[in-house]
Design goal:
42% helix; Aspartate Aminotransferase, domain 2
């Protein structure tokens, strides 16, 4: 990734680089065009795009519309190669190891469509797997008369227990394990650096759902060594929505093809994913600008700020519900934290969605409400545009809503 600082591009000052850890960073908040009357505590679902990145995307769109033939035929291929190379470098990967895709669900479905499952084969998941990914895996398994095996990983499990539970579920029929890097409903990290080689030694390919880890964590794909990794850039990298990547290890690249065949097919992975006719790919072209904006704020500081603010926000909301913050589930490296809701509240995904909508419409707080194993949670996110007052508003309103 290019290291040109975004600070000059955005403000011309270095003041942005001195946040109060876990507190407010008001100068940075202005970089996002978010409604100021709303507390935006759900960055983990849809992300938020800085104004300069939106302007970058609009600039690409204007180039596309003023001369479509020149743009699609002569400009876009090389520009996409450059963008992909910059994004791959950010993740510690080679450009020819990574392709752009629309989102993680597309990346997962792409891999599943290319693997030769047979009747009786098993695909391993955990009970923290994102719902859309679970649906994609089940569809692929049903088509091949294969079996989906779901293992229970306790919410409070330590690294050793997580490894033991997952590797202990492997059989001689296990062909693929689909594992989260950071789980969506429960905001937990899976210790992939330990688990991936253990599974591969047993002949199990590993597909990592990195929807939340991209940008939130310092991801080094070569070190991780997974067979496949797919991550969203619209979340913690703050790229335009519709931007994600799929990384494949050398063993698999010749087998990976896009879900829809197109003119790029003869080029193979990853170029075959870029030559897709008249699809608007300006979001992909704008991804490097998003990475530069976040790098200009200093990613080490951003990640530390976000984790500390998420933990402080979790404690604030927990106090509002009369909970002891010391007893809460917590991951010290994740920018999302859980607050358990009272018994019989949001015990199903439908109930969780209904409560999330009520919080958003009645108190102008956008926060994720999740349901896992019959327990409802408020999943509070933290991004640099957040401040302590956002969590205080949720803490004050939630008891009444419940």
């Amino acid at each position: 990734m290019r290291s040109d600082p975004a600070r000059d591009e955005l403000t011309g000052t270095t003041d942005l680089l001195n946040p109060l850890w876990g507190e407010d960073w008001p100068e940075v908040r202005a970089l996002w065009p978010l409604e100021q009357t709303v507390a935006h505590l759900n960055h983990g679902s849809y992300g938020a795009v800085p104004t300069t990145v939106l302007e970058e995307q609009q600039s690409w769109r204007e180039r596309m519309e003023t001369n479509p033939v020149r743009f699609f035929a002569r400009e876009m291929p090389a520009a996409l190669d450059q963008a992909r190379a910059e994004v791959a470098h950010f993740f510690g990967a080679q450009a020819d190891a990574m392709a752009f895709v629309a989102n993680v669900t597309t990346g997962v479905s792409t891999v599943l469509s290319c693997l030769p499952f047979a009747a009786g084969d098993q695909v391993l998941l955990t009970d923290h797997t994102y719902g859309a990914v679970r649906i994609a895996v089940q569809r692929a398994a049903d088509a091949a008369s294969a079996e989906v095996v779901t293992v229970h990983v306790p919410l409070a499990a330590g690294e050793d227990e997580v490894c033991e539970v997952i590797t202990g579920a492997v059989t001689d029929r296990t062909r693929l394990a689909v594992l989260d890097h950071v789980t969506s409903p429960t905001a937990r990290r899976i210790p992939l650096v330990r688990i991936v080689p253990e599974l591969q030694q047993r002949g199990v390919a590993v597909l990592v759902d990195g929807a939340h880890s991209a940008g939130m964590l310092d991801v080094d794909l070569d070190r991780m060594g997974a067979d496949f990794w797919t991550g969203n850039l619209h979340k913690w990298c703050c790229a335009p929505r519709g931007t994600a990547v799929l990384h494949a290890s050398p063993r698999w690249r010749s087998q990976i093809r896009p879900l829809v065949g197109s003119w790029g097919e003869p080029f193979g992975f990853p170029r075959s994913f870029q030559d897709v006719g008249t699809q608007d790919l300006t979001a992909w072209l704008s991804a490097p600008r998003a990475l530069r904006v976040m790098a200009g704020l200093d990613l080490i500081k951003v990640r530390r700020h976000n984790v500390e603010l998420a933990v402080a926000g979790q404690a604030e909301v927990a106090r509002g519900l009369g909970l002891d913050a010391a007893d809460l589930p917590r991951d010290p490296a994740v920018s999302m934290q859980l607050v358990p809701l009272p018994t019989r509240v949001a015990t199903t995904p439908v109930e969780a969605t209904e409560l999330q909508e009520r919080i958003g419409t009645e108190v102008a707080v956008e926060v994720a409400v999740t349901s896992w194993q019959g327990q409802g949670f408020a999943r509070v996110s933290a991004q640099v545009y957040n401040c302590p007052a956002d969590y205080a508003r949720l803490a004050a309103a939630l008891p009444t809503l419940l």
